[in-house]
Amino acid sequence: MVKHTEPDQTLIKMPSLRAVKAFVAAARYQNFTRAAEALCVTQAAISRQIRDLEEHLGAELFNRAGRAVELTPAGSIFYDAVQLSFTNIALAADRIRHSESPKQRVTLCCSPAFANFWLGPKLPALFAAYPEIDLNIVTTQNFLTLENGVNPDIIICKMAKSGQGYFSQPLVCDVIYPVCTPQYLEQHPEIRTLDGLRNSALLNLSPFGRSQVAEHVDWKVWFAYQDIDLDRRDADAPQLFNANDYSLLMQLAQHHQGVALGWHYLVAPLVEQGLLVRPVSDTLVHRDTRHYLSLSEAKSRDASCCKLRDWLIEQFDWSLHEEAEDQG
């Protein structure tokens, strides 16, 4: 006796994916004509698909005002859900396509500061050494709750346990010292002393949103290790500028706007090139806190992932690191 499959109500009740695709395009461009151009169909086809979708859902998805359209509250709810679903579908399809390609894609997840200051300048050498690797960089300041669909092969961050299913190994500990431009130092020679430094224009890294990037070290913490109270700055001292974006602080420092705290493994090349200088030799070394490289256990035998892992480890200049530790 043949056993019949019961109707799948979930699939039956789903709207047409073609209509949903038209809806996503219209919501993204807020214009039916531009959505039609993006999907290479007619404007009438987009309007028909949206109308059919609204009838299926029993709700209006757009407020129409001439050629422009905007999402209704119901449309916003639906867009948030389907946009994420379509992103996941596109990523899965992309992974499948690349699995049939002679090139192997490797996804590396790291902080924006690491990508900008450490990794970026080294990428041309990586591309030249391993042309068979398609590198995909994902930057974040939240390593514990990555977006859906983001499954890094390699993670570089301050956490030894980046999540289930990863092997971790230490890379480097935090070595932190003040940096500014030669021009700023020339204009403010008083910052060659700690007291003078305390009363200068300080570019401060605030902790908000950074709890998963690094053990936090700001100017107050750094000066405390030097037995100096930052709160005793002169009343007429320049403003203490705060931002939780390290790249922004370093950009300001390179534009002669003050003194920032430099993480040695990030700023050493800028110091070597003379773009930044150290106004004082005092250094804070966190020997017990390290940055880690974590490799997905599922990719532990993947040749491309292992090549990238080994290359990253080789790029850490241990001689410079040890020299900075000795100065601490």
Automatic annotation (TrEMBL):
SUPFAM superfamilies: Periplasmic binding protein-like II (SSF53850), Winged helix' DNA-binding domain (SSF46785). One of its GO terms (biological process) is DNA-templated transcription. Keywords: DNA-binding, Transcription, Transcription regulation. InterPro entries: LysR-type_TF_proteobact-type (IPR058163), LysR_HTH_N (IPR000847), LysR_subst-bd (IPR005119), WH-like_DNA-bd_sf (IPR036388), WH_DNA-bd_sf (IPR036390). GO terms for molecular function: DNA-binding transcription factor activity; sequence-specific DNA binding. Signal peptide: none annotated. Residues 15-72 form the HTH lysR-type domain. It comes from the Bacteria. Coiled coil: none annotated. It holds the Pfam family LysR_substrate. The keyword Oxidoreductase does not apply. Belongs to the LysR transcriptional regulatory family. This is LysR family transcriptional regulator. It comes from Pseudomonas putida (Arthrobacter siderocapsulatus).
